[in-house]
Amino acid sequence: MASKSKNLVIVESPAKARTLSAILGAGYDVRASVGHIRDLPKSKLGVDVEQDFAPQYIVPKEKRDVVRQLKEAVAQAGSVFLATDPDREGEAISWHVVQATELEQGRYRRVVFHEITPDAVKEAFQEPRDIDLCLVDAQQARRVLDRLVGYKISPLLWQKIRRGLSAGRVQSVALRMIVEREREIQGFKPREYWTIDALLNKEGAAPEDAFKARLYGRTSHKKLEIPDQASADGLVSELRDATLRVAGVRARPLRRRPQPPFTTSTLQQEASRRLNFTAKRTMQVAQHLYEGIEIHGSGRVGLITYMRTDSVAVAEVARNEARHFIHGRWGGPYVPHQPRVYKTKAKGAQEAHEAIRPTSVTRTPESLKKELTPDQFKLYTLIWQRFVASQMADAAYDQTTAEVEAAPRANPSDLLHLRATCTVLTFPGYRAVYEESKDNGNGDGEQDRLPPLVQGDELRLLDVTPEQHFTEPPPRFTEATLVKALEENGIGRPSTYAPIISTILDRGYVERDGRALKPLDLGFVVNDMLVEQFPSIVDVGFTAEMEEDLDQVARGERAWQPVIKEFYGPLEEALGRARHAPKAVEETSETCEKCGRPMLLRWGRFGRFLACSGFPDCRNTRPVEGEEKAEALPPTDETCPECGAPMAVKRGRFGMFLACTRYPECKGVKRIERKVGVECPLCGKGDVVQRQSRKGRRRTFYGCSRYPECTYTSWSRPLPDPCPSCGQRQLAASGAKKTQCGACGWKGELATAPEAELAQAPA
User: Fold this and answer.
1) Average pLDDT over residues 256-266
2) Mean pLDDT lowest for which of 148-162, 384-398, 552-566, 739-753?
3) Are 690 and 673 in contact (CB under 8 A)?
4) Other CB atoms closer than 10 Å to residue 510's CB: what's the count?
5) What does the pLDDT read at residue 445?
6) Rounded CA gap, 210 and 460, in Å?
7) pLDDT band at 476 (very low <50, low <70, confident <90, very high)
8) Cβ(74)–Cβ(9) under 8 Å?
9) How far, in whole angstroms, is CA 440 from its chain's centroid?
10) At what angle do helices 497-506 and 479-488 cross, to 10 degrees?
11) Does the pLDDT of residue 657 top 80, yes or no?
12) Phi/psi class of residue 348: alpha, beta or left (left: φ > 0; alpha: ψ in -120 to 50)?
């Protein structure tokens, strides 16, 4: 138990607590709340609409021990410092800790830092402040809004479509954007067009001096369009029979500035493009880098600044350190004359925050590679390179553009105009450390080199290549482009992008098709009902205005209750109308084989099915013809235990399972076993997999994939981390956030703090 002389520090995450303990020393007792310790109840709305939308917070069952331990620590402490994350969510967690532990005014102070480094932490503790109740109110307002949408609209979806669905104030807008983009693609009509490239050279020049120029216009047309092959063939004939010469050559220097350091949005986008990370995976890895990694010889070190931010601001000390590092590694020409200062363009950005950057540029990715997991190394490298590049000199280019005139023999005055462009890098600047993503293709006539050309040079045509193209529909959203669109439209905030995408995927509204997000049939149905019945709730502009209202609450410009009231009135009216809407069923030409009445197409847990319109008098159902076959996936690497044939994934009454591809000749089946990412601690050869008990109350347990050769089983989920007490890999999850070692009996808390959650309806 902490002594009276110790000050108590409360953070969210055990990992963050360990890093802070190493910095603050023995005079501080650092405890973790493990995320939120109070929340709205899951079993009911939890908002008193009649009493000015007062939230009815409870301490969830799984957090009661945490609260009890914090209360004991508070009673034994001198001063209490609330060091939760530097955003609205963190401010609200601090406020909830005060309420749950019944901390008296004057005994606690709030400290805020954007990086977990000795200097930043010590500076924060020298300048503590009160809890910012405006930020708390903004977070409460968001939580209440999300709860009202989720718990009011979701039951309607259960009645009209099927149980288990959910609506969300922000997730439903994201779904609408994906569905509308898909309908744009479906309704798109491609338009044919042609391009013509000519391979040219000067008279008497060497073959390697040949260059390409693209036809882009003619004297009699302001804009030359080539809509079909006949037009292209005519232009090709004119070029083959034309006199060509260089009409002009223009050379000019170009400079390209580096991109600013990462925000949450741009980090998720670039990690998706370069590393193929999902938004959720990116944020989980970034959380570990922020909270601290064990570095040999240095202890636990926070490697990056806070990863939930929409600001590109950088502290002056970090800019100066970067400039000194750049000068030492690449030399003076790579350091710009003035430090680079970036301004945030995102709507509602919080300029008090910093961009995501390494806490010290001297900790290079190469020096940390042995200390980091592969994912951590990849993401840290990306963050480090982007930040260092952002403080480097411009990249310099020389761009040469040659204009070519072709005078057709039949009409020499109606000249055809061609253009060739060459851009050469003359000074790499920031590109010495970080190259930005490039678009596909080289553009119109863009090439790596041009021969020496001067105005009036006679040219000869070596070849001419017409090429047919078709305009393409807009691409499907990827996680990267969806996050970008959400940010550009002012939808959501840095902490919500990853949960938004996870929710619409988990609910079965959207699936991944490669990197693209493709709406499923259920997503179309849910979206169409929401758009028809709640047009303002899922309107992009309305949702962006609501985000601005919440920002006004955070700035202390508005009280939060009137914001909710303005929203709730129209919501109640829409709910009243929606209750009379028809169910999402579709009439078919099929008839019930039991009673002869028409069959209806309905939605069930595993997709669409046919049900008798005479329900409940007739309860006949049957699968939709053809769709049960469509659900079967290609064969897997698994072999049938009965006959050795390949097995395929199929869907049954209790979910997915493996079935022999020779069915019905062979009826061999297997359960799909979910790996937990840990080697079997008993035999060391198999993987630990999650299983379900067969008898009595079906319970989850964990066993070796080599059963029956290996008989290892455990009711607790084994974890990959070694025990901090004895060093053996015998850690297992013994509760929602508790950990126990099977070797020495050590007990503690899980190191991973939960992500900020979106409000969801009860399942």
Assistant:
1) 95
2) 739-753
3) yes
4) 26
5) 57
6) 10
7) very high
8) no
9) 23
10) 130
11) no
12) left
Q: Which value, to the nearest 10 degrees, does the dihedral of the CA atoms of residues 443, 448, 454, 460 take?
A: -80
pTM comes to 0.77
DSSP three-state, residue 621: strand
Question: Can you give the pLDDT at residue 601?
Answer: 85
Asked if the peptide bond before residue 582 counts as cis, ω within 30 degrees of 0, the response is no
Give every CB contact of residue 65 below 8 A, 6+ residues apart in sequence. Answer: none
- Strand 108-110's sheet: what is its strand order? 28-32, 7-11, 80-82, 108-110
Read off the pLDDT of residues 571-609 as tens digits, 9 standing for 90 and up: 999 999 998 888 888 888 888 988 988 888 888 766 778
* Burial grade of 451 (CB within 10 A; 0-12, 13-18, 19 or more): middle
Residues in contact with 734: Cβ distance below 8 Å, sequence separation at least 6, in sequence order:
716, 740, 747
Active site (catalytic) residues? 306
Residue with tokens 């925050």: 353
SS (H, E, C) 325-379: HHHHHHCHHHCCCCCCCCCCCCCCCCCCCCCECECCCCCCHHHHHHHCCHHHHHH
- What Å distances lie between residue 460 and 53, 198, 209, 402, 608, CA to CA? 79, 10, 12, 15, 65
Contacts 24+ apart (CB under 8 A), 663-671: 666/640, 666/642, 667/642, 668/640, 668/641, 668/642, 668/643, 670/638, 670/640, 670/641
CA distance 451 to 56: 76
Q: Is 259 helix (H, G, I), strand (E, B) or coil?
A: coil
Q: What is the pLDDT of residues 117-166, one digit of tens each?
A: 999 999 999 999 999 999 999 999 999 999 999 999 999 998 888 888 88
Residues 738 and 750 sit within 8 Å (Cβ to Cβ):
yes
**Residue 688 near residue 679 (C-beta atoms within 8 A):** yes
Q: Angle, nearest 10°, between helix axes 14-24 and 279-291?
A: 20
Count other C-beta atoms under 10 Å from residue 386's C-beta: 25
Q: Residue 261: phi, psi to the nearest 5? A: -60, 170
Backbone angles phi, psi at 450, to 5 degrees: -130, 145
DSSP codes joined into one string, 71-107: HHHHHH-SSEEE---SSHHHHHHHHHHHHHHTPPTTS
Tell me whether strands 7-11 and 28-32 are parallel, antiparallel or unpaired: parallel
In angstroms, what CA-CA distances link 77 with 2, 4, 85, 571? 7, 5, 21, 47
Distance CA 45, CA 57 (A): 11
For 523, residues 6+ apart whose C-beta sits below 8 A from its C-beta are: 175, 178, 179, 504, 508, 509, 510
Is 249 in a helix, a strand, or coil? Answer: strand
What gap in Å lies between CA 656 and CA 650, rounded to an integer? 6
Residue 494 and residue 308 in contact, taking contact as beta carbons nearer than 8 Å: yes
Contacts of 607 (CB under 8 A, 6+ apart): 521, 522, 624, 627, 631
Phi-psi region of 34 (alpha: psi -120 to 50; beta: other; left: phi over 0): left
